[in-house]
Input
Amino acid sequence: MHDTTQRLFHYKAWANDALLTALAKLDASSQITGLAIKALSHSYIVDRIFAAHLRRTPHAYPSANANELPTLVQLSDEIRRSDREYVDYVAALDRDQLEERIDFTFTDGAPGRMSREEMLMHVITHGIGHRGQVSALMLLNALPPAKDGFTTYLHESEPASRGRAAA
Output
């Protein structure tokens, strides 16, 4: 499972980059850009909150939503930096660390307890959901969304192991 977790965080970084690159091509005043920033900013904040939980350190977020939204350029830089940090973090974990349960407090004050692996899977699935929201907005407005499927990632990142003879 550790290899899969590492692969999923590489995929997350790749998919985020593809979506951010597609969004950068839109007019900055586009309604889609504004809605995308709102969804992706929330996803980024949740990533940072869980990064703090994983390390058992405090975070400065009173909520999973930003009071002031960043620009797309600022948010893109922050997401890419966060994704690199997660890739490095996951690569350094061993099986015992993945299974370790951590107590933390949600932003609403409720207590939480999850294993590191569960927290990491939450970060992955949460981000997928919000990228999907943004892609749906793009489709509804006749714009091509980023090609961010896991199968596309695997075939682009591991072409030698994905090739096969034609049928």
User: Anything to note?
Assistant: The longest strand covers residues 101-105. The radius of gyration is 17 Å.
